[in-house]
Amino acid sequence: MIAEAQRLQSVQEYYFSKKLQEIANMQTDIPIISLGIGSPDLQPAPEVIETLIKESQAGVNGYQSYRGLPEMRNAMAQFYLSKFEVEVNSNSEILPLIGSKEGIMHISMAFLNEGDKVLIPNPGYPTYTSVTELIQAEPLFYDLKGENNWLPDFEQLEKLAEQKPKIMWINYPHMPTGATASREVLGQLVAFAKRHQILIVNDNPYSFILNDHPTSILSIDGAKEVAIELNSLSKTFNIAGWRIGMVLGKEEFIHSILKVKSNMDSGMNYAIQKAAAKALEVSEEWYDNLTKIYAERRQIIYQICNKLNVKYDPNAVGMFIWAKLPEGIDDKSFIDEILYTKKVFITPGSIFGSNGEGYIRFSLCAPVEKLTEVLKRL
Ligand SMILES: Cc1ncc(COP(=O)(O)O)c(C=O)c1O
């Protein structure tokens, strides 16, 4: 028998990979409506598609630079300057990625040895944990709780720091809860990381979805010494399947990540890079329109929440609505019942960690007509 590697023993197939297969195999009289995954159903800007088409015909089909086209890196730097007031050197402080999810693996491989400890939010994006386990480092979960607005408890962090973690994952605006961190909290996190020499990685793909105050951790004084940031074009520009992300930070950190990445892939498709540069330059109207569409959808999800008797925070931001079930109800059984009886899929909160138990998460990636249909079915 050919055994799989030991590192796979602690890792399960990704929840959505399994659940979406189950849903695809379900025999139903009416189509299932998924409010599960955060995959934008909206279209990219027309000029972005036009650029993709035009540049695919340019005859540039060879391997591309490991660091991405200068034009795309410049557009990324300009985007950070205009949106976050963060200055980065487009030659040395930005590395384009084939999606920010892959960046989680690259960063982990670049900085962690086997057995190193990693601070991971509970609840949080499951990939931080699975990647940590895949490379045989060790997750140290820190609590985010509703009563503390889903912000870290610094007393607990200080205790966990005694175990000398090497990396701390943070993700504000936070998925799945939609919580934001003020500049003050980000400043406290940077100070914590400096005190204990921890690399903070802020995973920041949701800053432009229903959020009035996009903030980069790199805009905090002195952050560059201990922090890097992941960003993504997936959600902001409706191109999740095109796979474009970036990691930003000081040259030494970026160089270490490049050492991993350049040994794993052979650059990003030329036309996609040209189109990404175009997307990063869209006017304010793009962002306003995105906000308008998601805000309208959010109102219907609020009605769905009321119907289901679950409680949401109207101040939360991002691409999801995070809602608390009445006391004592199990989230996985709750969503399964809705899936099997109403043919509507909602994500159970416990897949994001134990602090997500008793919560459910709705994605805003469904048009008004579908959301209205959900309301009707309920
Ligand atoms: C918190 C968080 N980080 C990263 C990602 C990955 O985004 P990308 O499409 O850039 O790989 C997601 C996608 O759902 C996410 O929710």
Automatic annotation (TrEMBL):
What cofactor does this chain's UniProt record say it requires? pyridoxal 5'-phosphate
Q: Which family does it belong to?
A: Belongs to the class-I pyridoxal-phosphate-dependent aminotransferase family.
| The organism's taxonomic lineage, starting at the top | Bacteria, Pseudomonadati, Bacteroidota, Flavobacteriia, Flavobacteriales
Q: Which leading EC class covers this enzyme?
A: transferase
Q: Which CDD domains match?
A: AAT_like (cd00609)
Alphabetical UniProt keywords? Aminotransferase, Transferase
| EC number annotated for this UniProt entry | 2.6.1.-
Q: Is-annotated flag, keyword Cytoplasm?
A: no
List the Pfam families hit by this protein, alphabetically: Aminotran_1_2
Q: Where is the Aminotransferase class I/classII large domain?
A: 32-378
Gene3D superfamilies from the UniProt entry: Aspartate Aminotransferase, domain 1, Type I PLP-dependent aspartate aminotransferase-like (Major domain)
Checking InterPro entries in the record gives: Aminotransferase_I/II_large, LL-DAP_aminotransferase, NHTrfase_class1_PyrdxlP-BS, PyrdxlP-dep_Trfase, PyrdxlP-dep_Trfase_major, PyrdxlP-dep_Trfase_small
Q: Name one GO molecular function term.
A: transaminase activity
From the UniProt record, list the coiled-coil ranges.
none
Highest rank taxon of the organism: Bacteria
Full protein name? Aminotransferase
